[in-house]
Predict the 3D structure of the following.
Amino acid sequence: MVSLSALSVALPLFIGVAVASTTNSSVSPSAARLSTCDTIQSSISSASEVFFSNTTEYNVNMVYNYVTSVQSAACSVEPGTPQDVAKIIGILGKTRDAFAIKGGGHSYNQNFSSTPGIQIVMKRFNKISYDKKSNTVDIGAGTIWDDVYKYLQPLNVNVVGGRISGVGVPGFLLGGGYSCLTNAHGLAIDNIVGFELVVPSGQILEVNAKSHPDLFWGLQGGYNNLGVVTKFTLKAYPQPKIWGGLLVNDIKYADQMIEAAAKFSAEVTDPKSELFFSFSWANGTMNIVSKVYYNAPTPPPGMFDEILAIPTVERDIQTRDFITFIQNISTDARGEHSTVPTQAYTVPVLQALYNETTYWSNAMFKVDPTVALVYAAEPYISSILSHGQPGGSVYPTSREVPLLPTSIEWSWSDPNADSVMNAGMSASTQAFNNKLIALGQKKVTSAGPYGNYASNFHYTSQDIFGSNMHRLSQVKSTWDPHNVMGQTGGWKVVSA
Ligand SMILES: *[C@@H]1O[C@H](CO)[C@@H](O)[C@H](O)[C@H]1NC(C)=O
Ligand SMILES: *[C@@H]1O[C@H](CO)[C@@H](O)[C@H](O)[C@H]1NC(C)=O
Ligand SMILES: *[C@@H]1O[C@H](CO)[C@@H](O)[C@H](O)[C@H]1NC(C)=O
Ligand SMILES: *[C@@H]1O[C@H](CO)[C@@H](O)[C@H](O)[C@H]1NC(C)=O
Ligand SMILES: *[C@@H]1O[C@H](CO)[C@@H](O)[C@H](O)[C@H]1NC(C)=O
Ligand SMILES: *[C@@H]1O[C@H](CO)[C@@H](O)[C@H](O)[C@H]1NC(C)=O
């Protein structure tokens, strides 16, 4: 019997391999940075705290989902109030130190939420509350989706949020957000009604479409460029029990599964449905790993029949609570994630995805036999972008055609393999993009790639923000004229 988690993204076999290298392998922080830490410590209220590298709290805060994201910060600060965030950003704006804002720590790109400078950890912003009257949920920017679902489940409501356990709320929401509920309600950002935002001037703003239309637009896909979000307000929806779960097929059924998945993507338009379909290589073996989802206790007759008819090595399909659909993975491995915008998952496109997985699994297995690769199709229905206004958000850069965020995720354990993996991932991303164009998918470059999946070894900030870079830089020049937020990592506004 193959292990379920080893197949889907992988990784009990890595646990313990690389975790030890997470914190103190690097050089000591500079005196200047430590002095900034001291200044912060003496300025913040008792709701907040600074931790140096001689503490347990510091070590916990340096842990990220991927070991390759980790860096040793000079210190870690946990603000407990928006006022203290304002003080910290004010100090950093003067000292010009590099800093990072860490939510869930799931970013696979180094420096996006890690730093050798001052690490700001949002975990104390952990409040979640449901307001029945407005039917909205306030979610602190230090929570992970697990916390949100645990809170909302007994209330029988839900929000458009993440699908993977451990993923942080803020990074997911500031980048766009594909969810189990995306076919029904669109991207997560299309369901945000407000933000609490600390801007670099120190003001604490309640941002919504009416109060600050420019910031409201810029925070929907514009990441950490405009300030530090401390709270999100999301629309709520009733959440019934759902139907679905995981299927794993032996790769010998590739042809049948490709046919069935292509047919499903072409024909099923029910907004309650979702399908995730991947070729997954781990431990020297390829499998097809899928998740089927229906946002009600029973799917309509026939909808998933062809997929379910194919024999499985692992099958866990049932009527269940929403929270049990959320996949619990933890990745104490090195890793990288990339994406290729895709117009449609036809049979030739899925065959090409299969070929990419096979080709790179064979190649990378020789470099590091612990490598795990997942090439995943996310066939959303064609109406998903209709839940937001054209031009209403930074992501996607165009709502003309919904581009599906094909996801490529590699993980491995040998630090010496990093550069080969980074180059291979980039080559694979390019090859699959070229293949899509050769197959007639001419619109795949009509909007930028999804930044939450995109590797910074392959894509630039210009690729991510594309035609929205100019407007985003204008909004930023109003609210962050001294480019304080440029001292953090991530997809960055470069002035146009
Ligand atoms: C690194 O941190 C670990 C965990 O806190 C500690 O046990 C170890 O002694 C530290 N090593 C060095 C060289 O500081
Ligand atoms: C840890 O280091 C800081 C800064 O160097 C120092 O002020 C503090 O006393 C140390 N704490 C412990 C527990 O050693
Ligand atoms: C992250 O930042 C560090 C130090 O600023 C730099 O050495 C490193 O190359 C950066 N990593 C990436 C992947 O850009
Ligand atoms: C990997 O394969 C080996 C040999 O077939 C097996 O013993 C081991 O349990 C597998 N590991 C996982 C995580 O599936
Ligand atoms: C997933 O596992 C983590 C760590 O073991 C735990 O904190 C979290 O609550 C789990 N999530 C779910 C949805 O079970
Ligand atoms: C399979 O993928 C590799 C790597 O991108 C490429 O070189 C090869 O031409 C592809 N084969 C087919 C049949 O498309």
